[in-house]
């Protein structure tokens, strides 16, 4: 596939853009960034409510997409980039668990002043509820409910089957409802 | 449709993912079943809380950071291409031709130069030789009239170097052979003239000298020369020498031998 010029790039699908990038047209990478930076940032934000960490992680994902562009061989781009994002988060999660053994964090909530979020009560309550989930459960909910990804795409991202993902998501929502309405 | 089925499909129902007939059935069931209605309401409320979550906007530094990385990656891409091209160009043909051409020009220049100078040098040498010969001739003609016997002999000997002596030289030599007061000069002149056997002028001079010269050694030299060139015209004057009373016996012997050889 020949490289597309700048006018054409906007019209391309994510997959077409990424194939361009993989063949060395790095200009197409800018479009991918514009389409996905908020999405990835918010994915991380639902996992870790720390702006600085989320920006770092988001940046790393785009860096890796660029660096390992040749490993993209077609297929659902959204699944591919979220697989990278998820792996990146796993790495971060493992290292943060090692460095802060004493704090019983399921998911890190930053204490730094500048990254504290203005919270209303509802938001706080939802976050408390979400904090009762483990990392994998939270990930599924974030991908499904916040990122709006269908079960088949999530299955691709986490390396599972569509049916298994659906069953898990149902179970987690049931659990969330219990906690949410018990403590409201 | 029982409550278990409702629980299975409630998420898709809320998300509007179900076909209309299935969705209608669920709607109907929820309207009649309090448990399922509560289950539905709770789920909708929870999703409502999810939906209230505000989208976060990353700071500008994320974008700046990304475009910086992109530029760096582009920089990495370009030198790679250049290096690859360099490696591919294993043999610099253009340069090789330039070098070859310069070498050819160098040799051409050298040969052209040497050829030209060689020609010039040859011309110069010829001119110089000509000049030397002229000088020598002039010198011979000047010296041959000199008072000193030895100078005259020296002048006569100079003529040996001439391949084709000027008529003036030959005339001068003949004059020396015939009329020089000194016998040694006359003898030297005869020897010098004997180097030019092709000249008719020289032959005539020798025939004439045979009758006029009285010196035995000169007579012998003249006879030897005429015999050597097989000059038939010399026979008559040689016979006269035999009849002449002044002629010494050893000269007569030489004449007899010579006449036999000429015939």
TrEMBL record, chain A:
This is RNA polymerase sigma factor. Residues 126-176 form the RNA polymerase sigma factor 70 region 4 type domain. It comes from Flavivirga algicola. Keywords: DNA-binding, Sigma factor, Transcription, Transcription regulation. Residues 32-98 form the RNA polymerase sigma-70 region domain. It comes from the Bacteria. Pfam families: Sigma70_r2 (PF04542), Sigma70_r4_2 (PF08281). NCBIfam families: sigma70-ECF. Belongs to the sigma-70 factor family. ECF subfamily.
Automatic annotation (TrEMBL), chain B:
The keyword Isomerase does not apply. Keywords: Membrane, Transmembrane, Transmembrane helix. InterPro entries: ARM-like, ARM-type_fold, Znf_put. It comes from the Bacteria. The chain crosses the membrane at residues 96-113. The keyword Metal-binding does not apply. Residues 3-36 form the Putative zinc-finger domain. This is Putative zinc-finger domain-containing protein. It comes from Flavivirga algicola.
């Amino acid at each position: 596939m020949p490289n597309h010029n700048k006018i054409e790039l906007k019209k391309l699908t994510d997959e077409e853009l990424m194939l361009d990038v993989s063949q060395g047209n790095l200009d197409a990478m800018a479009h991918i960034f514009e389409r996905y930076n908020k999405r990835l940032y918010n994915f991380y934000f639902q996992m870790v409510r720390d702006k600085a960490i989320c920006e770092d992680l988001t940046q790393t994902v785009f860096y890796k997409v660029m660096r390992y562009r040749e490993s993209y061989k077609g297929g659902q781009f959204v699944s591919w980039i979220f697989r990278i994002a998820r792996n990146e988060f796993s790495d971060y999660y493992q290292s943060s668990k090692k460095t802060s053994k004493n704090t019983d964090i399921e998911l890190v909530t930053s204490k730094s002043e500048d990254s504290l979020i203005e919270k209303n009560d509802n938001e706080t309550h939802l976050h408390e509820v979400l904090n009762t989930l483990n990392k994998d459960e939270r990930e599924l909910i974030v991908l499904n409910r916040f990122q709006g990804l269908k079960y088949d795409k999530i299955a691709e991202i986490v390396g599972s089957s569509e049916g298994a993902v659906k069953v898990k998501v149902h179970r987690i929502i049931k659990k969330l409802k219990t906690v949410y309405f018990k403590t409201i | 449709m029982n409550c278990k089925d409702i629980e299975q499909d409630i998420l898709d129902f809320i998300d509007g993912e179900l076909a209309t007939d299935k969705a209608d059935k669920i709607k109907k069931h929820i309207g009649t079943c309090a448990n399922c209605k509560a289950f539905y309401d709770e789920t909708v409320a929870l999703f409502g809380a999810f939906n209230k979550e505000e989208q976060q906007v990353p700071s500008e530094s994320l974008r700046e950071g990304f475009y910086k990385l992109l530029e760096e990656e582009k920089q990495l891409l370009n030198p790679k291409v250049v290096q690859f091209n360099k490696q591919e160009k294993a043999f610099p043909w253009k340069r090789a031709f330039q070098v070859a051409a310069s070498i050819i020009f160098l040799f051409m220049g050298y040969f052209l130069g040497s050829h030209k100078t060689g020609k010039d040098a040859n011309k110069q040498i010829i001119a110089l030789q000509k000049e030397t010969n002229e000088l020598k001739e002039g010198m011979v003609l000047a010296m041959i009239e000199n008072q000193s016997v030895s100078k005259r002999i020296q002048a006569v000997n100079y003529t040996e170097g001439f391949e084709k002596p000027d008529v003036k030289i030959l005339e001068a030599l003949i004059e020396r052979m015939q009329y020089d007061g000194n016998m040694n000069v006359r003898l030297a002149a005869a020897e010098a003239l004997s180097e030019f056997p092709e000249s008719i002028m020289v032959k005539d001079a020798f025939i004439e000298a045979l009758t006029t010269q009285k010196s035995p050694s000169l007579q012998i030299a003249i006879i030897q020369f005429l015999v050597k060139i097989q000059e038939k015209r010399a026979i008559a004057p040689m016979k006269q020498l035999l009849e002449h009373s002044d002629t010494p016996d050893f000269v007569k012997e030489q004449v007899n031998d010579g006449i036999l050889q000429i015939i």
